[in-house]
Records
---
Amino acid sequence: MGNNGMEIKEIKLTAKDFSSDQDVRWCPGCGDYSILAQVQRSFPDIIGVKKENIVWISGIGCSSRFPYYMNTYGYHTIHGRAPAIATGVKVSRPELSVWVAAGDGDLLSIGGNHFIHACRKNIDLKILLFNNRIYGLTKGQYSPTSEKGKKTKTSPYGSVDNPFNPSALALGSGATFVGRALDGDAKHLQMMIKRAAEHKGTAFLEIFQNCVIFNDGAFDKLTDKKTRDENVLYLEHGKPMIFGANKDKGIILSSGKPEVVEIGEGKHRVEDLIVHDENDESFLIGTLLSHMTDNPNMPTPVGVFRQVIMPTLDAEIADQVEQITKIKGEGDLEKVLFNGNTWSVN
Amino acid sequence: MIKEKEVQQVTEVTVRFAGDSGDGMQLTGSQFSETTAIFGNDLSTLPDYPAEIRAPTGTVYGVSGYQLHFSSADIHTPGDRPDILVAMNPAAIKKNIGELKPGAMIIANMDSFDRKNLQLAKYETNPLEDNSLKGYDVYPVPISHLTAKALEGTKLSPKDVARCKNFFALGIMYWLYNRPLEPTLKWIKDKFKNKPEFIDANSKALTAGYNYGENTELFTIRYHVEPAKLPKGIYRSISGNEATALGFLAASVKSGLPLFLGSYPITPASEILQYLSYYKNFGVKTFQAEDEIAGITSAIGAAYAGNLALTTTSGPGLALKTEAVGLAVMTELPLVIVDVQRGGPSTGLPTKTEQADLLQAIYGRNGESPVAVIAAATPSDCFTMALEAARIAIKFMTPVILLTDGYLGNGSEPWKVPNVKDLPDIPVKFRTEKEGFAPYLRDENLARPWVKPGTPGLEHRVGGLEKANITGNVSYDADNHDLMINLREQKVKGIAKDIPLLDVDGDQSGELLVLGWGGTYGAIKEAVIKARENGYKVSQAHLKYLNPFPSNTEMVLKSFKKVLIPEINLGQLAKLIRSEFLIPVEQFNVVRGLPFRVSDIENKISEMLGGSSNGK
């Protein structure tokens, strides 16, 4: 077959090509399985990135085993440091597509500093937060995203810690892409992974992920077929914010605050609703959406909260190297060593 | 007509400039050094300044000093006790008087000896007038007043005029030691090229100081120190931190690998980051990280991605980087960590020198976590050892800790600049061959293959969990763990085959060997030379490789009846030597945040050999 003059076409990869030979060792029923599957399914569609140019970096936690299961380059590092290690990879090799898999404890507690600085510097990293609102690998202590009052092994009388709001934190740190998806909504999750992949800059994707052992059902309201339509707001750029099984509810801005209203005859009109603008540079819509999350009177938004294009740190560092080289000429070690005041001993 | 002044020939001089942190003493000192280097003397410097940037003026704790030892002969230290002190205020005298040689010369800016400054320095009466400086050769000079007079008619504010006084003082010193003004005049021109009024003022102040020396009747003698007879070559003056930066730049060129530095500013190491951030046209990427941990972890990411990866820090930073060093050990990546040691523990003495991070470097991690540890001996040796650190890291796929210290980092000396073609190449081999690849295969040096992400077909995973031998898969197997622990240890031990033997200066065996490491080289060397001049039989050896030790270390030590180990810590190398070789060594430890005094080591040598018929 080989020599019959057939044109060789690049073969499109499949999900299987991204699967490593390692047995996946998460608990049966863990939300991580779905996230892994959606990543493997969506990666063949990411245009322009070769498999050998993909690097997964993780820290410590259940979800941080992720790189072992991806047949790409991967580095399972130490607790909290994945964004910093990924930064070194990306800054030194901007041509690589660098992904971070992190849990809520890893990214927001021990690694909080690296996370906010990665967002601030707009390093071209794709950061997936597997947010299950619990410490899983250490067997059930409250995490920085656990809701106040939660009873866990280290908070038997209820946690007195206020949780982080991850998307608000990312926005506040200047992230240029902030989005959310659910482990239980495969199609939407795949779409969001591709959106993150296509973004040039720090892409922060929070994924609500169910921990079957220590926090089972935390997101049932959002993933259960019976309740999800009433509780999830799917965001679409340029479209009014509508939700509900019968698409009869929407979000209006009333005295500067978001409010759920019914739409239809004698009620609010669709034109009254907030129209989602992902590219809103003012942070207003993104911030509004991020703070709807824990409001019991509001649906939980999923989708892209905000996406703006800004120069990335890795590109700017590379640019500076190029520009300075252009001005000064390629480095001449001899010249540098003999630079300054020299004298000769004969 | 003023009569021709007497010129006295001297072989060596130790000068100390001292004044307020805002008086420009570091600048004055470094200009004097630069000119002295160009003049051809051998020299060694010791900047000594407070951690506060502008400590309250006039106070003793705000005094900033710069010491310089120069000579017509070979010298190795910044000098024990100054022959001459330039004191810009009373506090400078208060702080330094106890360290001067008996009969030392003091040039004091008498204008600053007013009531306020005397009070701030806690003087009840003026030391220039109350005879308390009897025994010293004191020259009160109205430096502020004369500077203002020299600058009459300039457009500078009185405050700016006052700031030129350090150049006047420098001018006096140039006259006194017969140095040319040109290098500093040129430096002033470059430095203030956008502020012509400052070029004019500072140049005038410098020249006026020189002419004052020439014309005043105060000074009757000036001194001449002949150029030193150094080996042939082209020289420049270099500080340890600059030499470190240039060493890694050279390593990048010689290995063909782009240099990545991830670092967080910390005294006294920040300068290395500052220097390297200039060399973008060499493809150097510097990343000023959010903290020490991100400094090293970004470097680990760059090492994984196939760069010459470096992080620079001081003791507190090394403590923060500890866990990440372990990750580089487990994932067997080439990484260089520079620790410019300072006084500890905790924040300690940020601007002072110490050698107390040796055990932290060798042992300070969880688990069995071997890394190579090497140390520079002099400021210019930082260049050589930076190249060595990179070479070992790459060849053995291991983290290497390079120890320097505040004294080496800030101190400077003449450096015979090497030719690029004489520097050895650093071979690098990236694995690209798919056939038979496994991430934890090992070569003859037990190094694993280095694979750049982006290489098709070699996609693989590494991590901090224990690795299965060869495959690198996660393994909890008991025997495999034991095997891997030993493999990592053997790999680092094997570096001993690849480094120079320990050299002995002096008799190869005998009564006493003085063994040192790191920045104490010069002080020990000078002490040993002086002890020999006094008839003692004493040899010197200096360890630049601390883990592993050179393979002949035990043999060398056992060739002497006694071994003395002076260290600026409480005996960390002594502990290592005892535990490794079961050799009883004598330790000598003074931990003052300053380099050793040569005389202290010399006294210790004579104490150990005193009365011994073999020793003298």
Note: Chain B has a mean pLDDT of 95.
---
Amino acid sequence: MDLLKGTLDVLVLKALTWGPRHGYAVARWIEDATTGQLQVEDGALYHALHRLEKQGWVESEWGVSEANRRARYYTLTRAGRRQLAAKTATWTRYAEAVFAALRTA
Amino acid sequence: MADLPHGIRRAFRLALRRPPIEQEVDAEIDFHLEMRVAELVERGMTPEAALAEARRRFGDTHEWRVAMSAVDRERVARSERAEWLSDLRQDLRFGARSALRAPLFTLLAVLTLALGIGANAAVFGVVKSVLLDALPYTDADRLVRVYGRFLDGSNDRGPLSAGTVTDIAQRQRSLVGTAAFATLPRESILSGGDEPRVVRVEWAEPKLFRVLGVNAALGRTLRDDDAVGDTAFTVMVTYDAWQQLLGGDPGVVGGTIRINGISRTVAGVLPRGFVGPGGDVDFYYPLDVRLLLRDPISARGSGWLGLVGRLEPGVTADAARSEIAAIGADLAREYPRDNGSITLSTVRLRDSMAGDTRAPLLVLMASAGLVLLITCANLAAALLSRTISRRKEFAVRVALGAGQGRLVRQLLTESALLAFVGGVAGIALAALGLSMLRRLASRALPSYADLSLDPGALVFTFVLALLTGIAFGLMPALSARRSNTQSTLRDESRGASESRQSRRLRGVLVAAQIALCVSLLAGAGLLIRSLAALTSASLGFDPGGVLSVNVQLPADSYRSPEQQENFFERLEEQLRALPGVTGVADASALPTAVMQRNGIRVIGAPPPSDNVLPFALYANVSDDYFRTMEIPLRSGRVFGREDAADAPPTVIISESMARRFWPKGDALGAQLRMGPDPNSTPLTVVGIAGDVRNDPARPDAEPITYVSERQDVRPSRFLFVRTSGDPLALVRPIRSALASLDPNVPMRNAIPLSAFLSDALTGRRLPVVLMTAFGALALLLASVGVYAMFAAMAAAREQEFGIRVALGSTPREIASLVLRQGGVWMVAGLVGGAAGVVVVARLVSGLLYGVRPFDPVTLGVTLLAVVACAVVALLVPVRRATRVDPITTLR
């Protein structure tokens, strides 16, 4: 299934709600959460992370991973949290509307 | 250093050195691929297949890498901008805080700057409005004015005759157009309002407005065919007169007004701000110069016209000057009797209108500039010592990793902040100063100058303030850069001492301040001495207790000389009866303001060589004039009833006149002819009166002739009433006396003579007052500079002095140590000041009277003042140095 425009950003933000994560962890979370239904290049995901950082929605810092490797960790900022809440609401309404429309026989 | 906790980094604003963006991106991608490969291998893939799969899932590595780097670069640039701004905010906050922590320094710096900048902005405002601003004409720099220069030296900017004006207009080739106008406006009476008003009227050729390039604001300007006959039936009104006299009513254009009892049509209103080359007037009458040529005597013999012209494109003012001078020489040959005594001089109209204000203004500008230089030197010295006392603070910050660029920036921000505050305060001072000048100097400056702080002057001054701050902030900033962190921290734990370099820099700054201060004070001193010479010398009459009033008889109701004379006699009779009045007289002009000059031909004396007719001032006066003004009679008699209109003409001359024309002392009873006509009736000298200085701004008296008003009756006269009480208390009784005789006769310009004289000297006093103020300012600033130098020097060597005292030095020896170190620079400053005095003396030499440019008194007093102030300024630090307590300083 191809990704709808703007979906990736909100998924990435969602992935960071449980605390700082590096890019690979974000990728794994999205795969798990969508049960591998979404086809997205890992590169695109990283690009999204950097774009979100430029927007000021996430912050990054180099840290040490579980495997004792240097990794870049991303954290949701306060502005990012607000953005996620807003986007979640929009997406839910949108999906419900489409769903409701498609349900009518 | 890299492992400092983040909080400390932030607290000291240390820069985080970031690795290049591409490296970070690569590391991130590598980490991701490694993790993915590990995951896939765990699921049972071979490492090779896992790597291939990981790469496939990632997509085009190169493309993503480029895209991510681009995003990061934008982000970094944006955050750097934000950081720069927040740094600036922090620098400003920090600057403000450190400024407040050293309130004395801050106050000194801001005040110094404010004074320097305020003085400059104010003077620049004046200079700009007088010398630089456009005159209220089109392309005013192409306009010139032609003057007659009297060869006897009595008048360099004399009027021209109608014949001369006509000949110049016809013969010249370097001007596009010329126009003549009357140089002296006439006073006339405007009726129709609540009460008759005296207005100023100027006759001008209608093409004057065309030559000046001025259009009417309302209606039209005068046309050539408006000038018909000797009566002006069409007039032009200036904007101010339209507003004040005619109520600003647009309906007056095309309507009629009554001036001197004759109805005249208003052709139009001149634009606001227009001032004619002849000065401020209310109305312009159309003049036809051809009519003046009818009578041979008035055509060439009497001059009362001014001439302006516009340069032909491509012709320089110099070319026009020499062409017109040549025409003047031709006219002198053709009409030796009338033109033999003058040459023609052509000057730019601006120079003509700026008049005598140019030299004083340039002197003032130079003085203000000197003050600014002193200001800069002072500020630089202050910033320098401030930097020295903060060296440790900087060293600590450098040691903690602050970039040196960051420090320089901090210092620059601080000094720019100071300059900004100083500049704002300075502009406020300038506005204050200008409003003072406007009151003080309105008479001393040309009437077109509006003396406003204009945006150009403000921008100029503000840029000046910022440049000063930045330039002198940079110097200490650079020296802070050079300072060696380690040695500062290690060796100077007991307090900062000055480096040899900064000591020399400070010395040079102090020397420069002293030199500038000496020059400025010497200039001010010379001007003060000239003014004193002018005001202390007697004018030749006693102005105290005399009220002067101008009374103008309407021409329509007082046609004959007898009627006019009769009126004034009756009026003066009434005034003599007023309580406290000790004398009443009248004259055609105020003493010191006599304008009219006549050519003099002494009967029996050989005609003047090369036809240069000498000129003398001319006034006509009443019988009691000399007694009332207390002008002493040296010999002969004053005027009386015997000098009636039909009696033989008589004249009273001044002492200098008698000396000049009758060097053998036989003036009394001698005869002379006055005026243009060589065959006029001779006048007999019946009295010799004391000299009156007609120009109070000059120490010598010009020859003057007096004729009885019985023999030359005029409808407009100045009455002089001497009283034992307050002259101003007479205004009301005089007004009612006048009204009781004829309510239609207006009176104006009631002013005590002493007040009038004080006004007349304003032009002289202004540069003196201002330059003295600048001098005092300079002295104050330089003293502060000297104090700061010695204080810093003494503080820096406190430990050394402590050791010396401990080893047995006496306070006297310590004092001489300090003095020797600082004295060198003071002497250097005084020597530099001597050079400055030479320059200043040359600059002001044109403004000096009765004092030589290198007046020993002035120079001596100046030196004394500077040295005395310097001594006072250095006493405190030297005393402190001698009282050094070895125990506290060495502990």
Note: Residues 791 and 876 of chain B are 8 Å apart (CA to CA).
